[in-house]
Design a protein that fits this description.
- By secondary structure, this protein is mostly helical.
- It has a domain at 36-115.
- Helices cover 83% and strands 0% of the residues.
- The protein has four helices and no strands.
- The longest helix has 33 residues, at 23-55.
Length: 117
């Protein structure tokens, strides 16, 4: 929610609507809230992977399908948070792979998990 509020405030400032926030300050707050959001999302996907690993068998493949994008996403977001020197192209590829991997894992894994309740 914070990211959306800061985005709205930044967009209003760019449209010429007055406010007490400087655009740079808003962008920094927006960045911080975005990093927290994406870290939480990738961390939760990593936690979900344990459910599949515990079930064993073919579920282990789903555990890997959850853990790999979660690890890649956490690495990318943590490197951005720490402002590590990663080229923008590499960073973009890491995030794209993490997002696509996460979507595929969730689309396959959630119905499997629901069917095994």
């Amino acid at each position: 929610m914070a990211e959306n509020v800061y985005t709205l405030r930044l967009l209003r400032r760019l449209d010429g609507v007055g406010g007490d926030d400087a655009p740079r300050s808003l962008a920094m707050w927006m960045r911080s809230s975005s990093l927290v959001k994406w870290m939480a999302l990738f961390a939760s996907t990593g936690v979900l992977s344990t459910m599949f690993f515990e079930r064993g068998g073919w579920n282990t493949l789903l555990g890997v399908a959850y853990a790999l994008p979660a690890g890649l996403g956490l690495t990318a977001v943590a490197s951005e948070a720490g402002r590590l020197r990663i080229t923008p192209v590499v960073f973009e590829h890491m995030l794209r792979a993490a997002f696509v991997g996460q979507v595929v894992a969730l689309l396959v894994g959630l119905p499997v998990a629901a069917s095994q309740l």
